[in-house]
Structure formats: structure tokens, C-alpha cells
Amino acid sequence: MEKLHIPVLLTEVLAGLAPQPGKSYLDLTAGYGGHASNILDVTQNYKDSILVDRDEFAVDYLKQKFPPATKIKHTDFYSEVLQLTECGKTFDIILADFGVSSPQIDMEERGFSFKHDGPLDMRMDRSQVLTADTIVNSSSERELAEIFVKFGEEKPGRAKMLAREIVHSRPVKSTKELADIILAKSKYSKTHPAARIFQAIRIAVNDELGEIEKTLPLLPKLLNKNGRLGIITFHSLEDRLVKDFFKSASSYGEESELKIITKKPITAENQELVINPRARSAKLRIAERN
After folding, report:
1. What is the predicted pLDDT for the residue at 96?
2. What pLDDT is stored for residue 227 in this prediction?
3. I need a surface site. Which of 27, 76, 118, 219 has the fewest CB within 10 A?
4. Rounded-to-integer distance, Cα 246 and Cα 257, Å
5. Is 24 helix (H, G, I), strand (E, B) or coil?
6. How many CB atoms lie under 10 A from the CB of residue 128?
7. If you average pLDDT over residues 274-289, what whole number do you get?
8. Range 106-207 has CATH code 3.40.605.10
9. C-alpha neighbours within 13 Å on the C-beta side of residue 284
């Protein structure tokens, strides 16, 4: 699994969050522990650190990877942040990586990838009821088009056309069938024509933007003074939410909750992109608690 999952912007995360021995750490999307293992190697503070993920495969892996003293939570990050806020818990370092992990994409049975044939699933937490199959095969033509525009940033005309084709092709039984429907109605492009549609459906299935919107305003309350918050996003919808939140939380002068450390988002260097092409769209923003 270590070889399958390479943490993005690792050097930049370590430089920006500046972990020190004894510091407490909250990882809201721990995945397979790529960032967490490197940060905890420095802090060595396992008992005051919490690793969160809503994917049971990731949670099982984390429990094997880290010492028993490490608190590992199987839940979504908003629920955990809400609970920690109510308990008055605070941390020196908080990290959230909002991307889909490589193992999720590469496991055909998870249904995240348009390159692999699998079921229309796309659930990060497989205990939830809503799946990609429900959205693809039960949504109206209008609802599908709205999802494609809102979460995939597709042009309205193309979104309507693809929604119509999908409805006429029902039942759509697999990721390959869905990708083929989209491909048949698309011109050549550098990126796969299905990428935006799969992104849109995945975001809708997991309520990704809703979770982020609810979580962001609570994060400063979880930071100790001078504690640092790092957030990694992978598309403009996520990054816009983070950018606007950082701007708002740092706009009250001395009374601001946060001070922005990264005036512009940090992106991957060419050296990393050669090793991990999936880092090409990653953006890291960092802020500090006043």
C-alpha cells in the first residue's frame, strides 16, 4: 500500500506546518497515513494526536500502521470536528487533504475511476446508502445536468446533452458503461471527457463541498495559539471555498482568527510530478492561529 499511495506536496507540507517534538496533530483525512507518518515521526506525540478517515479500508490500515496510543477515528471530518469543538479540544497542527486517495481510485470495486471497470459506487464511506448508481439511474435529466454544471463545472449545453444520453441509456450498470456513453458524445481533449462528470457524481455522492463548507468555520477553534492549519485541494470548487474562508478569517486585523501564511497556493514542483502525476492539480494553503 505504501507504494500505491504517495502523499502529495509532502516536502511543502512539512516545511509549512513545521512540526516540532511534542506538538499535537489532527489529520482530518488521514487516508493511508502518508502525511501523518512523516509529521508524527517528528512530533513523536501519538497520544495527543488524532487521525480521521471515513473509509474503512484506510482506517483498518492506519490501525496497523501506527502505535496503539494513536487515536484513529472512523468518521467523516465534519462530525469529528463538531465533536472536538464541543469538547474544547485543540491542536498545534491540523491538516486536511480533500483529494481522493490513490487506492480508492485504483480499486475497481470502489467505482471511482473512469479508467477501470467497476460498479457505480463512489462512496468514501461504504456504510452510507447513497451511491453513484442511485444518482446515475434515478435522477431526472434536469437533476443530472445540474449536478454536472454545479460540481463538474461543465458547460450547461454539454451537461444537458450528456444528461439526456445517460437517461436514454439506462440502466447504466458500470463505470465503463458510463465512461463510454460520455466518450461517444465527446471530441478529443487532453483530459478524459468523463473526468468532469465522474468528479461531479463523486462530489454529489459524498456531499464533499457541503462537508467542507460546514467544517471550515470550526477549524480555528481547534487550533492552539500559533498553531498551523494546512489544507490541500484538488479542484477549483474546493480551493475557492478554502481561499474565501482564509480571506474572511484573516480580515479583522488584530482580531482575526487566522493569519495567512501562503499568499498564493503552493503547487507541486516538476520533480514531484514525474514521480506522482496525480499531484498536478494539488494546491496547498496554510494559515496560522492568531
Report:
1. 98
2. 98
3. 118
4. 9
5. coil
6. 13
7. 93
8. no
9. 25
